[in-house]
Amino acid sequence: MGGIIGLQGTQDAAQMIHVGLLTLQHRGQESSGIAVEKEDGDFFNYHMSDGLVMGKYTPAILETLKGTSAIGHVRYPTTGIKSGLTDAQPFLFKCAHGSIAIALSGNIVNTEALRAKLAKEGSIFQHSSETELIVHLIAREKLPIENALKKALNKIEGGYGGIMLFKGKLIAFRDPYGIRPLVLGKIGKNFMVASETSAIEVLGGKYIRDVEPAEILVIEKGKLSSGFFTQPKKENNCIFEQVYFSRPDSIVRGFSVAEARMSMGRKLAQQMKDIKADIVMPVPDSGFFAALGFAKESGIPFEMGLVRNHYMGRSFIKSTQHMREVVAKLKLFPIGGIVKGKNIILIDDSIVRGTTAKKMINMLKEHGVKNIHFAVTSPPIIAPCFYGINTPSKSELIYCNMSHEQIVKEIGVTSLHLITIKNAADACGGISGCQGFCSACFTDKYPTKISKSTREAR
């Protein structure tokens, strides 16, 4: 999982990719990388770094990344969890076709079977990431690169958005279900692609459209061509993008993320119309817009009773449970003067493992909160995601291991309210309930086949 951005046709390509990665930092904090195609198209200037993007790409480093075509990636690990630079992307390869730089956001669910088959046939893998599989599959084809990529993508299953640099071409592709996001934009006469519209707009670019499910875009010398590697499937966009993962200033499926979250808050207020409270307050920052929507719908005053330490990472996004617990202790601080003696409605985007919730509730009680009604803008998460969100096993999901009543007691709230699947989908622009969205984490029903071994490996 992570975030990707690519562009072509500008002399300051590396600097622009750097800004784009800063914008996409919320999508991955494990590592990052920028690859710029050399003018002769023979190979790439590149730089990889672990941790946050900020401060790792100095002016001196960016000066070495010469070229007009570039791609970048920020990563947080989901499969083959492994910290460090070994799996930092973009990956760089040389094969019979030529030099390839590639980056992927998402997961391939038939990795194990494909890796075993390719290894048996002589392939040697350098990385634990499934992104490398695509290059091995391309390398086996004697077709032109676009056709080789089409054949490769027809052999993989999962949810992903990907970008490649190859001999003066910027190539972008998206999974047949449209699970993971990928958008097309333009800066002046130059095309670009990114995981989110915010990364395009921060650079002064204009969002044009979403890359379609199963679509391959080829950008070369300012011209855009489009094709499909297979028939697009019934659309299954990840609803967690709007619930949690995407920036609030991004557009997903043509809908503002901020407005979708406000709508979720309004629908929660309708579900909780009999609950009385003194104030509505968000868990910052991702609960902000939902709490604002709740307050407007309910008429209960909005207050900021928690302050977030923005120098801490997201507790959900950390690779290990220990690190999630450390971050949860440090990231949020109650404001006693606002919360003391109050009956509050506390709005958060999700309850996954319960790591943050329990400690946060305890802190609020220590600062004199009277009653806490906890409202969540995602339905109960009962199944792991195999498409790029790091919820690897049911053993880690609180709703798989406790009843609703037990969770209320465990995290220490007066009441707990979760949005319904229908209300969440409606708020995000769904049609006929959850049509158009992947809701596997709420239903345990997946749009692609998930093998028994893949399930057990999680």
UniProtKB/TrEMBL annotation:
UniProt key word DNA-binding: no
GO molecular function: 4 iron, 4 sulfur cluster binding; amidophosphoribosyltransferase activity; magnesium ion binding
Enzyme superclass (EC): transferase
Pathway stated in the Swiss-Prot or TrEMBL entry: Purine metabolism; IMP biosynthesis via de novo pathway; N(1)-(5-phospho-D-ribosyl)glycinamide from 5-phospho-alpha-D-ribose 1-diphosphate: step 1/2
Keywords (A to Z) from UniProt: 4Fe-4S, Glutamine amidotransferase, Glycosyltransferase, Iron, Iron-sulfur, Magnesium, Metal-binding, Purine biosynthesis, Transferase
Catalytic reactions of this protein: 5-phospho-beta-D-ribosylamine + L-glutamate + diphosphate = 5-phospho-alpha-D-ribose 1-diphosphate + L-glutamine + H2O
Protein name in UniProt: Amidophosphoribosyltransferase
Taxonomic source organism: Elusimicrobium minutum (strain Pei191)
Gene label: purF
